[in-house]
Amino acid sequence: MPFATNDDLVKYFPTAMDHGIADWTTELAMAQGDVETIVKTRWFNVEFGSNRGRTYQATFPVFDATRLTDSQWTRATCYRALAVYILSKLSTFRPEGDSFREQLAFFQNRFDEEVALQLSSGVEYDLDNSNTVDTSEKFPVAQDRLYR
């Protein structure tokens, strides 16, 4: 399932369909791939890669993005699509600047905030593949230090 659709995108950028392009599905799919990679590297590999704090297991779980809760990553996917794929297509990147380039920076900041918020609130991941996420399958990421 996609994390975000064109309808979701319009919620965060109401004029998304007013620039001569009626479908941003490809850009949303690329953004979803980015979000999945970020979740894997910033959460899954940290949580399960070293088997830190868990009883020894002979095999480690393998990351499967389909086990993530789609709705948890909708905003992040929209923000990533806007910041990296959509607004960069619409911008002229002239030295004097344009509104799309300013919005691009805004949505990149929103994306960074959203990912940090979701990671700290707890990644919902269906670890046992039961098609439901219970409280034991919500994994917050603890940050013990400030990263800049």
Quick take:
The protein is mainly alpha-helical.
Structural summary, described in words:
- The protein is mostly helical.
- It has one domain (6-139).
- The protein is built from four helices and two strands, in the order ααααββ.
- The chain has helices at residues 6-12, 25-48, 74-90, 99-121, and strands spanning 123-124, 138-139.
- The chain has a two-stranded antiparallel ribbon with strand order 1-2.
- The protein is elongated.
- The model has no long low-confidence stretch (mean pLDDT 88).
User: What is the string of SSEs from the N terminus onward?
Assistant: HHHHEE
Total number of strands: 2
Biggest sheet strand line-up? 1-2
Give Rg in angstroms. Answer: 17 Å
List the helices and strands and how they pair.
Layout: H1 6-12, H2 25-48, H3 74-90, H4 99-121, E1 123-124, E2 138-139
Antiparallel strand pairs: 1-2
Helix pairs in contact: 2-3, 3-4
Features:
2 strands, mainly alpha, two-stranded antiparallel ribbon, elongated
